[in-house]
């Protein structure tokens, strides 16, 4: 049996579960639970510990170091369900993440300190018959940012190839395709998930790359994803992300589901 709450950040959706409820049986069934037809449907599962802490499991069962939209969802869960204050720090595999939560007529928003963001230069890569210059950024997890136009089938094909033991990215990579205008329009193919409605660490990586390439001035920068916009800022050397966290519903998977699936 699994008790959970479902949240989303700009359409990037997760099941939030307590560490005390997360068993080896649940771990073995992450992909099935996240299936959008036969399971609950989600991009991943967020496991919350008492510290408070967050572990992330992608839809395919893999473990990324960090999830920006996910940490906002966990922050809301901790405030509303566990009694934490609106300013809190959540331990993650990428290090502690300071969160500041606010509520207004437009919803529940979380500002998250996402670390400095490490720009790692450019690399020339060939994938799916396309030669590209990618900007490598670490947000505690790996990102490859491409500035230019690309259609969705090509994004999916290149994203998949970059995550199939590509020599430049042996551990896989989050692949961002970005159009530069008044805002940064971004589509993300996430490692272990596929193309998503939004990616918090991806939006941060895009802003860091744009700042380093002087495509945008360092400061509040809007990254517009298919699910909506995130605002990325630089404060005292740290990258900050601001975006919503939406509580969708509470649910339970009974024992029969694990037997019958």
What does this structure look like?
The protein is α+β, with helices and mostly antiparallel strands. The protein folds into 2 domains: 2-114 and 245-260, Roll (Diaminopimelate Epimerase, Chain A, domain 1), CATH 3.10.310; 118-235, Diaminopimelate Epimerase, Chain A, domain 1 (Roll), CATH 3.10.310. Helices cover 21% and strands 46% of the residues. The protein contains 6 helices and 17 strands. The strands form 2 sheets. Strands 5, 6, 7, 8, 9, 10, 11, 12, 13, 14, 15 and 16 form a 12-stranded mixed beta sheet that branches. Strand 9 (130-138) and strand 10 form a beta hairpin. The longest helix is centred in the N-terminal third of the chain and has 15 residues, at 68-82.
Note the total helix count. 6
Structural class: alpha+beta
What is the N-to-C succession of helices and strands?
EEHHEEHEEEEEEHEEEHEEEEH
Number of domains: 2
What is the global morphology? Answer: globular
The CATH C-level name of the largest domain is Alpha Beta
**What would you report as the Rg, rounded to the nearest angstrom?**
18 Å
Largest sheet: 12 strands, mixed
CATH H-level homologous superfamily name of the largest domain: Diaminopimelate Epimerase, Chain A, domain 1
The rounded distance between the terminal residues' Cα atoms is 13 Å
Number of strands: 17
CATH topology of the largest domain: Diaminopimelate Epimerase, Chain A, domain 1
Helix content: 10-25%
Report the uncertain regions: none
Name the average pLDDT.
Answer: 95
Strand fraction = over 45%
- CATH architecture annotation of the largest domain: Roll
Oligomeric state as shown? single chain
């Amino acid at each position: 049996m699994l008790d959970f709450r479902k949240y989303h950040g700009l359409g990037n959706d997760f099941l939030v579960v307590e560490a005390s409820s997360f068993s080896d049986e649940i771990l073995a069934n992450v992909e099935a639970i996240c299936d959008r037809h036969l399971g609950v449907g989600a991009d991943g599962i967020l496991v919350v510990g008492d510290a408070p802490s967050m572990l992330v499991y992608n839809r395919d069962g893999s473990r990324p170091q960090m999830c920006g939209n996910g940490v906002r969802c966990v922050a809301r869960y901790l405030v509303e369900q566990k009694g934490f204050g609106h300013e809190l720090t959540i331990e993650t595999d990428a290090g502690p993440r300071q969160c500041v939560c606010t509520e207004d007529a437009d919803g529940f928003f979380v500002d998250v300190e996402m670390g400095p963001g490490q720009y790692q230069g450019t690399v020339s890569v060939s994938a799916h018959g396309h030669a590209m210059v990618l900007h490598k950024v670490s947000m505690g997890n790996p990102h490859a940012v491409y500035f230019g136009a690309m259609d969705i089938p090509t994004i999916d094909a290149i994203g998949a190839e970059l995550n199939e033991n590509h020599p430049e990215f042996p551990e896989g990579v989050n692949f961002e395709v970005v159009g530069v205008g008044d805002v940064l329009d971004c589509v993300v193919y996430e490692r272990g998930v596929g193309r998503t409605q939004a990616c918090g660490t991806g939006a941060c990586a895009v802003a860091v790359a744009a700042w380093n390439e002087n495509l945008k001035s360092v400061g509040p920068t809007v990254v517009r994803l298919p699910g909506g916009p995130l605002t990325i800022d630089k404060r005292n050397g740290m990258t900050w992300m601001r975006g919503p966290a939406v509580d969708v519903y509470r649910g339970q998977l009974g024992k029969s589901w694990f037997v019958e699936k």
